[in-house]
C-alpha cells in the first residue's frame, strides 16, 4: 500500500523498458562512434603507442543502475542511470549529470571521453567522466525529481567522492539537483561534503560565477574567434540552438557585447528575427510557457531551419549530433562556436572545413563550465571563497590563452582547431599515462 494515498502501489507502469545498450530511436549518429573517430584521427597524427591507444579507446569504469522511484500518484517507476569514468590518468574524474530521455550508454561514454580531453586541454588536474538518467525531467514534479536524484546519488556512492569523481550539472539538471545530490551524499557520510559536486547553490559552497561560466567561456571563445577571423564582434548576427543554461547565457553575454541575437530555439522549436530578438521579452516568455515556441517577437522556425539561418555565428548549445553530413553543406554561419558537447559529426566537420567555416570545438569553447567547477572544488576543499571578479578574471585568462594555444598548434600543424585541440589534449593524457606506468 502507498503510505500517502492508501492505494495499492502499482508496479512499473511506465516507461516500457528499452534495451539500454541500443540507441534511442531518434539518434542518427552514435556519439561514441563520433568520439572514437575523433580520437583515432588525433592518435594517428601523433603516432600514439598502441598500448596507450588501447587504454584510451575504452572507458576505465562503467556503472549502470536500475532503480525504483515512488511517483506522486503512488505508482513506482524503474529508471536506468549510468556513470562512466573515462580516464583517471590526470586525477579524479569530473563531468556532468544529464537527465534526459536521450541518455544511453554510448552517449555517456562519448561525453566522458570528451571530458577527459577538455580537462587536459585546460590544464585541470582531472580525468573525464559523465553520467545520466534516462528520464524526462519536464514531466516530473519537484518531489519526483528530488526522489529520483536522491536515489541515483545513493546508487552512485561506490563510484563518486570529492577525491574520486565529482559530478556537475548538465542537460536537464541544475543547482537544485546538485544540492539534493550533495545533501544525500553528506547524509550518508554523516557530515557536509560540499566538494562532492560542483554547480551547487552559493549557500552550500557553490562558486560565484559558476552559473554563467560555460556561457561566459563560449562568449569569450566567440570574441577571440572573431578577432582571429577579422569579423567585427559588435553588430555580428548570432543564432543559438538551445535556450538552457549554456544557450541563454551565451545569448545574453554576446548581446551585452553588441551582437544581435537573430535566432534561438529549444527542444520544441525556435524563433527568428533578422533585426534581433528582444532577449528580455523572450526570457519572460520562456519563464511563463517553458518554451521558446510561440514567442511573438519573431517568426517560428524548426530546429532544422534554425541551424541553416544566415548569420555570422552559429552557437549549437543543445545536444550532440546536430550538424551532420545531412545539413553541413547548407550551414551559412561564418563561425561555429560549440557550446554543446559533440554537436558536429566528423563527416560534417570535413564538409565545414572544405567550405572554410571556422569551428571552435566543444572541448575548447565550452570549457568555461569545468574551469569554474574546478575553482568551486578548490574553494570547497580550502573552505576559502573568491569574489566573482576574481573568478571571471581567471576564467577569461584561461579561455583567451586556451584559444591562442590551440590556434597556434592549428597553424603550425596545418590542421583544424578541433584536431589541434585533440592533439594537445591527447598528448597530455598520454604523457601522464606513460609516466605513471602500468600498475602493478
Ligand atoms: P539545459 O538543460 O540547461 O538546456 C538544454 C537546452 O537544449 C534546452 O533549451 C533544451 O530545450 C534544448 N534541447 C534539448 N534537446 C534538444 C533538441 N533535440 N533540439 C534542440 N534543442 C534541444 O542544458 P545545458 O546545461 O545548457 O547544456 C547544453 C549543452 O551544453 C549540452 O551539450 C551540455 O553537455 C553542454 N555543456 C553544458 C555545460 C554546463 O555547465 N551546463 C558545460 C559544458 C557543456
Lay out the secondary structure:
Layout lengths: L30 H15 L4 H7 L4 E10 L5 E10 L7 E8 L4 H17 L5 E8 L7 H14 L9 E5 L5 H15 L20 H20 L7 E5 L3 H12 L3 E7 L2 E4 L6 H11 L9 E3 L1 H5 L5 E4 L18 E3 L8 H9 L3 E3 L1 H4 L2 H15 L5 H26 L3 H20 L4
Parallel strand pairs: 3-4, 3-5, 6-7, 6-10, 10-11, 11-12
Antiparallel strand pairs: 1-2, 2-4, 7-8, 8-9
Helix pairs in contact: 1-3, 1-14, 3-14, 4-5, 6-7, 6-12, 6-13, 12-13, 13-14
Could you provide a short overview of the structure?
By secondary structure, the protein is α/β, with parallel strands linked by helices. The chain is built from 14 helices and twelve strands. Helix content is 43%, strand content 16%.
Describe, in plain words, how this protein is organized in 3D.
The protein has 440 residues and is α/β, with parallel strands linked by helices. It contains 14 helices and 12 strands. A 7-stranded mixed β-sheet has the order 9-8-7-6-10-11-12, with helices on both faces. The protein has a 5-stranded mixed β-sheet with strand order 1-2-4-3-5. Strand 11, helix 10 and strand 12 form a beta-alpha-beta unit. Helix 1 (31-45) crosses helix 14 (417-436), helix 3 crosses helix 14 (417-436) and helix 6 packs across helix 12. The N and C termini lie far apart (52 Å). The relative contact order is 0.13. Residues 1-18 have low confidence and may be disordered. It binds nicotinamide-adenine-dinucleotide (NAD). The site of nicotinamide-adenine-dinucleotide has 25 residues, from helix 7 and strand 7. Nicotinamide-adenine-dinucleotide is lined by residues 96, 169-172, 214, 241-247, 265-267, 303, 317-319, 339-341, 366, 369.
